[in-house]
């Protein structure tokens, strides 16, 4: 287990920090002298209570979550939240959605089960987030996907809504990669399986004034007010996934990079990784990224070989070079490099080296 | 890590087989030479595809699931299913619920959001499952909790409904502890965190003719037809929990006991463990179990010290003797020993020895 691990560019479930995996393995049979694996602990016991409290405290500290926001540890992933958000927040009224890619489009479709949904703007095939949004003053909320995993489109700054309507962000694939400007956000949610931990854990951050308005058909287990009132233990939470997430939070807190520490270090490293990769793609006529530089994702970098007949060869040679899971999403094709928090700079350097080498040999 | 582990009587999340935990630890950084932890794999890649297919095939074999039942790997636990079942099956009509304890009572309450719910029978404080049920011919389904985790009440035989209405069983806390008579069941569900794996995975077995009738307000991620059509990958499934469950299925298949193998061995061992523990309780005037012998659970054995002033001493001495998590549910009080599949006979023998010893010293 001491050989270097390959670099894993999966879009999610995604690479986790190696020290976290090692600690999980070491503690598997006996967590802190308890005689139990974390998987075997009652969620109501003091051991897991300690784990949950530490995870929440560390996450609040990392993201500077204000006290009037509740942090909920839930299940169902982003697709679950596509229904759970409107069941809790829409009041059966109006919801405005800004479509910037596949995920926000899916969110709009699902919200139509519960609300009058309007597409306030649509990126279409332009590759640039629209500036003009048709917003309704009486909407219950405005939904954006702040990082589109499939399309590689990210809001570099969250919109500042001035019409008094709360903003909901689907932050699944860049949560914990950068700070969140909470003044602009009413609710944020995200699946854990990108930057945070195993699939099956969903994080929700909700401003307290948005609690208490769920539709009567909202299941109790997915009612934010009920979940909040029970400290995320109305039903049995995904305890092991929360434990792994807590270790990841500790890892982020301790990360040092470019004279920074914690989330600032992670963010700077993500900026540098993305700059390196986009520069390599833009500097070549062999590869192509089609997203406007103003809104390119730091996390998910879809790209294409201009000669797509080489796709299979590219993937096979990448794998042989220890660069895993680079195939693009089936709806888009081509390639995608997801370079989440756990991807070291060396991984992106290795990918860039491979891109140049492959171009020399096949260009 | 070679010292014997304590015996863990948690009601869930609960003890897992030690060989499974060891294998999970060993494969944590590199699953089968893939260079990835299972936590880090795309759910759409061939590696996880292999894991999911094997888990489903082994589970189908163990429980002899007929081909016209779909096996779904979902999220949200039993409390989530309390809403998800009526959203999928009730058609907004009538649902009959037989109350045999806390869990079936909760299920009835949640189903009222979606359907006209009638309590067909209620165990009350009798400790015996009622024989007379007031069933409606035009109900969409009849719900029972086939093992009540909190109350320690189990159906030793599933009811045979003769009025043409499907039976739904909440089998969370005895799933995979014994065979299921599928001729009597339309749908079975259960959280994994008792006999199967980590919390955060929910198993649903549904007869195909019951698919396709979800209410329009049912979230896509929880629509059985959608989940089935996407082979449990409409949203990202709890991949790591499914992997652990798959290892547990392998462990069950290989278990040998009393000349039996697989589920038959597990069941016989559960019968013997329960008989040993109930005999010790019944043979003492110091302890008491209040459930009628006709419907005592093989899995969850609530019991009381007649002198409840000794409760804290009992728990402290039990813990010191390596017998963990014996405290009863807060709504019931007293003690509870959950003796799921992973509990060896030696664990129950140790508990029985401790019961006798404690009685000698404090009786």
From TrEMBL, chains A, B:
InterPro entries (UniProt xref): Aminotrans_V_dom, Aminotrans_V_PyrdxlP_BS, Pser_aminoTfrase, PyrdxlP-dep_Trfase, PyrdxlP-dep_Trfase_major, PyrdxlP-dep_Trfase_small
The UniProt record lists the keyword Flavoprotein: no
Pfam families named among the record's database cross-references: Aminotran_5 (PF00266)
UniProt remark on cofactor binding: Binds 1 pyridoxal phosphate per subunit.
Compartment(s): Cytoplasm
Annotated GO MF terms: O-phospho-L-serine:2-oxoglutarate aminotransferase activity
Sequence ranges assigned to domain Aminotransferase class V in this UniProt record: 7-351
Top-rank taxon, per record: Bacteria
Modified residue annotations for N6-(pyridoxal phosphate)lysine: 194
Enzyme Commission (EC) number: 2.6.1.52
Classification via PROSITE patterns: AA_TRANSFER_CLASS_5
Pathway where this protein functions: Cofactor biosynthesis; pyridoxine 5'-phosphate biosynthesis; pyridoxine 5'-phosphate from D-erythrose 4-phosphate: step 3/5; Amino-acid biosynthesis; L-serine biosynthesis; L-serine from 3-phospho-D-glycerate: step 2/3
Major site of localization recorded for this protein: cytoplasm
Enzyme class: transferase
SUPFAM superfamilies tied to this protein: PLP-dependent transferases
Recorded catalytic activity of this chain's protein: 4-(phosphooxy)-L-threonine + 2-oxoglutarate = (R)-3-hydroxy-2-oxo-4-phosphooxybutanoate + L-glutamate; O-phospho-L-serine + 2-oxoglutarate = 3-phosphooxypyruvate + L-glutamate
Cofactor(s) required, per the database record: pyridoxal 5'-phosphate
Residues reported to bind pyridoxal 5'-phosphate: 103, 149, 170, 193, 235-236
Binding-site residues, L-glutamate: 44
UniProtKB keywords: Amino-acid biosynthesis, Aminotransferase, Cytoplasm, Pyridoxal phosphate, Pyridoxine biosynthesis, Serine biosynthesis, Transferase
Function, in words: Catalyzes the reversible conversion of 3-phosphohydroxypyruvate to phosphoserine and of 3-hydroxy-2-oxo-4-phosphonooxybutanoate to phosphohydroxythreonine.
Assembly, per entry: Homodimer.
PANTHER family (alphabetical): PHOSPHOSERINE AMINOTRANSFERASE
HAMAP family: SerC_aminotrans_5
Protein family membership: Belongs to the class-V pyridoxal-phosphate-dependent aminotransferase family. SerC subfamily.
Protein name per its UniProtKB record: Phosphoserine aminotransferase
Organism: Pelomonas nitida
Taxonomic lineage from the root: Bacteria, Pseudomonadati, Pseudomonadota, Betaproteobacteria, Burkholderiales
Gene: serC
């Amino acid at each position: 287990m001491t050989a270097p691990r390959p670099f894993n560019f999966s879009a999610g479930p995604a690479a986790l920090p190696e020290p976290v995996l090692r600690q999980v393995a070491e503690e598997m049979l006996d967590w802190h002298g308890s005689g139990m694996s974390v998987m075997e602990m009652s969620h109501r016991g003091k051991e897991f209570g300690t784990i949950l409290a530490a995870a929440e405290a560390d996450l609040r500290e990392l993201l500077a979550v204000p006290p009037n926001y509740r942090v909920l540890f839930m299940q169902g992933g982003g697709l679950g939240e596509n229904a759970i958000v409107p069941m809790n927040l829409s009041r059966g009224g109006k919801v405005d959605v800004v479509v910037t890619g596949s995920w926000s489009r899916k969110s709009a479709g699902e919200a139509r089960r519960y609300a009058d949904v309007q597409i306030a703007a649509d990126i279409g095939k332009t590759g640039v987030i629209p500036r003009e949004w048709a917003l309704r003053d009486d909407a219950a909320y405005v939904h954006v996907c702040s990082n589109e995993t499939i399309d590689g489109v990210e809001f570099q700054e969250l919109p500042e809504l001035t019409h008094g309507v709360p903003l909901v962000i689907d932050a699944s694939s860049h949560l914990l990669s950068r700070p969140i400007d909470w003044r602009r956000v009413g609710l944020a949610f995200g699946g854990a399986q990108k930057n945070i931990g195993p699939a099956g854990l969903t994080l929700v951050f909700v401003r307290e004034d948005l609690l208490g308005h769920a539709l009567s058909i909202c299941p109790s287990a997915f009612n934010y007010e009920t979940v909040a009132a029970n400290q995320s233990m109305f039903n049995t939470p995904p305890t092991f996934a929360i434990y792994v997430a807590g270790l990841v939070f500790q890892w982020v807190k301790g990360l040092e990079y470019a004279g920074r520490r914690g989330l600032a270090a992670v963010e700077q490293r993500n900026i540098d990784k993305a700059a390196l990769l986009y520069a390599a793609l833009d500097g070549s006529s062999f590869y192509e990224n089609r997203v406007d530089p103003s809104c390119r994702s730091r996390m998910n970098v879809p790209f294409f070989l201009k000669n797509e007949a080489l796709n299979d060869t590219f993937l096979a040679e990448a794998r042989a070079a220890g660069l895993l899971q680079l195939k693009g999403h089936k709806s888009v094709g081509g390639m995608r490099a997801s370079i989440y928090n756990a991807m070291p700079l060396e991984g992106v350097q290795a990918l860039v080296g491979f891109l140049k080498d492959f171009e020399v040999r096949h260009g």
